[in-house]
Amino acid sequence: MPGLSLWLSPPPESSLYRALQDLITDLAGSVPAKDAPVFYPHITITSNIPIECDADEVVAFAASHWAADALATVTIMDFGPAFFKKLFLRIRKTPALTQLARECREKYVYGLATAEEGDPADQAAVWAQDEFDPHLSLLYTNSWPFSDEQKAEFGAKVQTVLETHSTEWTGGLLTLVPTYRSVDEWKPLASQLVGSE
Q: Can you name the residues that pair with 176 across neighbouring β-strands?
């Protein structure tokens, strides 16, 4: 992914966060190709943030635009051919999450682009409506397609987590990550807890 990415993770001290991290690690070890990296559980709020942006400023801006009623809710598990969305949980596209993504995209992606590319607010609104697809990936791999047996095995592991933990949360950790680098170099540049009252 080009540039920097702004992530929202479940509260890091929560049992859901720990269960998702364990699941991501377990699933990575289950892929025969052994090409699946381990990463932090997160929803990407926006990517393509220029690498020269001040990390603390970006995270502080996002935190200041956090809606107190923002709720992340898992809807379904899904599979797909894209490396970064091979096995993932769809997250309900709520107005609060969409607004946060739109405002961050407007300021740090379109707002920093050249003027002739269009109005940043208009571009961000179109992107938020048409392209923002909140999800929480569980597996990155080049392996595809999965066999029915693999899907059943992966699905059973995911279902165990979903049945034993809440599938929605408020607040969490906003983190800016250098996703222009390889996955093993995705170390947080800045982070801030939100909604942790």
A: 6, 190
Closest of 146, 193, 164 to residue 10, by C-alpha: 193
Residue 88 tokens, joined: 């993932």
Q: Which residues pair with 91 in a beta bridge?
A: 74
* Residue 97 tokens, joined: 């999450």
DSSP label at residue 146: P
* pTM, 2 dp: 0.95
| Domains of the chain, start order | 4-194 (3.90.1140.10)
Question: Is residue 71 within 8 Å of residue 19, measured between CB atoms?
Answer: no
Q: Which two tokens mark 95?
A: 């107005």
| Chain-centre distance for alpha carbon 197 | 22
Beta-strand (E) ranges in 50-152?
Answer: 71-79, 87-91, 135-139
pLDDT at residue 36, rounded to an integer: 95
Contact assessment for residue 4 and residue 179, using Cβ atoms and an 8 Å cutoff: yes
